[in-house]
């Protein structure tokens, strides 16, 4: 099962990931995303891949 994580040091707080994928990522108190589903499965794997692709800072990591 792939693992979803965020490199908060790279995050620019642009907000695309939490806006487009609120079921996977939620904005935390510091403006950076908090991962809600650390081990996506089924359709959420594609969603997590999309989130990683749209991040302008390449801060969203999906490890196989
Ligand atoms: S899309 Fe990337 S840079 Fe923007 S808030 Fe999410 S993790 Fe941070």
* Fold-level CATH name: Alpha-Beta Plaits
The average pLDDT value, as a whole number, equals 97
| Global geometry | globular
Order of helices and strands: EHEEHE
Please state roughly what percent of the residues sit in beta strands, choosing from under 5%, 5-15%, 15-25%, 25-35%, 35-45% or over 45%. 15-25%
Q: What CATH first level would be assigned? A: Alpha Beta
The SS-based structural class is alpha+beta
Distinct small molecules bound, one entry per kind: iron/sulfur cluster
Total individual domains: 1
Describe the oligomeric state of these chains in a short phrase. Answer: single chain
State the share of residues found in helices, binned by percent: 25-40%
**Biggest sheet details:** 2 strands, antiparallel
Point out poorly predicted stretches.
none
> Order of strands side by side in the largest beta sheet?
1-4
Radius of gyration: 10 Å
Count of DSSP-assigned helices: 2
Which architecture would the CATH scheme give at its second level?
2-Layer Sandwich
Query: How far is the N terminus from the C terminus?
Result: 7 Å
The overall strand count is 4
Structure description:
The structure is a single chain. The chain is α+β, with helices and mostly antiparallel strands. It has a single domain, classed as Alpha-Beta Plaits (2-Layer Sandwich). The chain is 27% helix and 22% strand. The protein has helices at 16-20, 43-54; strands spanning 3-6, 25-27, 33-35, 60-63. Strands 1-4 form a two-stranded antiparallel ribbon. A two-stranded antiparallel sheet has the order 2-3. The longest helix is centred in the C-terminal third of the chain and has 12 residues, at 43-54. It is globular and about 30 Å long. The termini are close together. The relative contact order is 0.34. The model has no long low-confidence stretch (mean pLDDT 97). The structure holds iron/sulfur cluster.
